[in-house]
Amino acid sequence: MKIRSLLLWLALWLVCVHLYAGRREVHILSANDMHATVWNFPQLAAIADSLRALYPDLLVLSGGDNRTGDPVSDRYEIPAYPMVALMNQVGFSASALGNHDFDVHSLAPLTLLSNFRYLCANMTADDSTNVRVVPSQVFDVNGLRVGIVGVIQLSPNGIPSTHPDNLKGLHFQPAKDVIGQYEWMSKTCDVTLLLSHLGYEEDRQMARLFPWIDVIVGGHTHTQLKGDEMENGVLITQNRNKLRFVTHTTLTLDSTGCSDDGVAKWHVADKHSEYINVPAFSQRNKTVEQMVAFFSNSPELRRVLAHAETPFEVPEELGCMICDAFKEECQADIAVVNPGGIRIDSLSQGDITVRDVFEIDPFDNHAVVLTLTGHELLHMMLSYCHNRKFSFPFVAGMQCVLTTKKDNPRIIESVKLLKPDGRPLDMKKRYRVATNSYIVATSQIPEGSDEHLNLLTTDLMMQFLQRRANVSYQGERRVHVAP
Predict the structure, then answer these.
(1) Helix (H) or strand (E) holding 418
(2) How would you classify residue 294: left for phi > 0, otherwise alpha for psi between -120 and 50, otherwise beta?
(3) How far is CA 334 from the centre of its chain?
(4) Which among 469, 278, 431, 439 has a CA at the least distance from the CA of 361?
(5) Contact, 226 vs 197, CB < 8 A?
(6) Which of 88, 133, 165, 383 could form a disulfide with 115 if both were Cys (CB 3.0 to 4.6 A apart)?
(7) What is the mean pLDDT of each run of 10 residues along the chain (483 residues)?
């Protein structure tokens, strides 16, 4: 009887080896931080078509931040629906949640309209939110099991970097506290992938903490990698924002026979990533091209507001103009705007349109006027940026001189507030300060000091531009770093 059982097991093993011997591949096309760049979707769809013709089981993944950046998508009746429609047409398999995917309260309907799932293991949603998100998903790719876990970044206040009002009914945990709960995937799946909106440095940290992950498809920091970026044996991929590049990842798996219950076993033998320039791709998907043209047909977005006599070449020049708009339209003494609220880096000389304004500021924040002393104003700005130089606000009605730490120039040690003529600001005097509702919600201000206006910040900018007709901010700087 024992010999018969042994022969039966041996026969099963030989059949298994015959069926599964050799190599198989998993192919993944991934994007991240697309930020509503609908204009590059015809090329993206053509890239997906070309790869899918070679690899029918192609996985198409997004590292999050699909929306916020182009008013063609952001200002639609259901905000960001055009991006979902285009992603459905391309055939996305899954998406991470990015911090900007929570913008403007439209995530719930988008999750219902998407033909793919949103993956986020470090977030839970109350039933009342109607947000349909799952922590992980397992795909059958060419007979191989590919397990994917999604995670999202958290800012120092413990939530993703979006307006806190957009997160009601949603609860978050640090990614590193939950990823370990999915180690079972490395034992039951042939490939384990982390779909991450943490940022490049945190992705490297996750690779060191969880070496059982095979691949991290990353996002959030817009880091353009060059290919085959390995950390602790884990392949990491990420691209610049706005669909400038996408990644084609090839995983080669070797058969290692069967388990005792006859299930084929595979080992990832090779990992390779290559980056594809999307705008330079020579082919365009005609159906997607027609969809983009349909969504883009908006005469209001093309309406001219003013003329830029010189180009805006850096974000601070745009920041100075926005702050001037806040200060002038709110009849304030001082204006403060967060750098993260400015979503383009430059603006060409020439006509400034309604579309340009919504590209600069897509968040539907409201204007707020605060009554603050100089000391309270400084405390608000430092509490907003957490003493990080790159987050320090742009201003109008004053100048700021930052002194940074010698051992870490990214951290602010002290700030001097000056009048526009360079004299010290009276820190005890009360000032009328114009800003936006995001800064008020994410910084420390005295209770009862704020007056919310029934105006969107984009309304302020459009009024200002129409009144000015011509603007020039070339070389304008009001935030300086002490030598």
Answers:
(1) strand 408-418
(2) alpha
(3) 31
(4) 439
(5) no
(6) 88
(7) 52 47 91 97 98 98 95 93 98 97 89 97 95 97 96 94 92 97 96 98 98 98 95 98 97 87 86 97 98 94 97 97 97 97 95 96 94 97 96 98 96 97 97 96 88 90 96 97 93
